[in-house]
Amino acid sequence: MEETISLQEIFKIIKKRLVHIISITIVAAIIAGVISFYLLTPIYQASTQILVNQEQTTEQQTVQTQDIQANLQLINTYNVIIKSPAILSIVIDRLDLSLSPDQLSNKITVSSQDNSQVVNISVQDENAAIAVEIANTTAEVFEIEIQELMNVNNVNILSSAVLGEDPSPIKPNKMLNIAIGAVIGLMIGLGLAFLIEYMDTTIKTEQDVEDILGLPIIGLVSKIPDDEPLASTDKLSRSRRK
Which regions span the lipid bilayer (predicted)? Predict the structure, then answer.
C-alpha cells in the first residue's frame, strides 16, 4: 500500500526542522562565498573588433553588394584562421608568452553576428593587461598575415582593447555563486529534513500513537513533577514522628 503525505504534513515537517534547514542553507551560502572570494582565480576579458570590408574604387561601386556577400562568406574562414597556429605562433613570439598555440587558442573566442562584417576577438586571462595585449596583438597579426595567406586586403581593425583603471573580472560571479550555494543548501536541508522524518519511527506523542498504530487513546499518564516525591516523603516522616 502506497503511503501518501498531505500538504499540511509537509509544512509540519518543514516547521519542525526549520532551524536545521536554515542553518544548512546559511552554511552552504557561506562556503560558496568563501570559495568565490578567496579560492577561485579571477578571470578578466578583453575584446577587440575587426572589420571585414574590401575597399571599393569608383569603378567598383556597381558590385559593392556582391563584395559584401563575399566578405560575409569569408568571415567563417577568418574565424578559423584567427585561432590557427599560423597566427597564434606569431602572437606568442611577439609577446614572449610561455604558452603553446593550443593553450592560447583556448583563451581566445572569435565570434560574429549574423549578416555582420564585424568580427569580435575576445581573450580571457588571469591578468587583465595580458588579456588586452593578446587581443590587440592577435588582431594586428591577423590583419597583416591574412594578406599573404589569402591574397586579400579587406581586414581593418575597428576598435582595440583598452585596459581600464580598475578592470572587473568576468568570472567568478560571486553573488551568483552565493545564490546558487544557498539554493543547493536549501535543497539539501529540505531533503535531510524529510529523510530524518521518514527514518524516525519513534513514538513521542499521543498523536503519533493514533497516526502510526491506528489505535485510539484511552488514557494519559501525567508527568510527575521532580519535587513531588520529596514532598510526599516529608509528609510521611512527619506522620511517623507523631
Answer: 21-40, 175-196
- Asked if residue 168 is part of any domain, the answer here is no
| Domain span at 109 | 44-159
| Other CB atoms within 10 A of residue 138 CB | 27
Rounded-to-10 torsion of CA 191, 197, 201, 203: 170
- Residue 41 confidence (pLDDT): 93
Q: Is the whole-model pTM more than 0.85?
A: no
Q: How many domains does the chain have?
A: 2
* Residue 221 phi, psi (nearest 5): -105, 115
Q: What is the DSSP letter of 138?
A: H
CA dihedral 135, 138, 144, 147 (to 10 degrees): -110
> pLDDT value at position 228?
54
pLDDT, position 197 = 82
Torsions phi, psi for 239 (to 5 deg): -65, -35
Rg (CA), the chain: 36
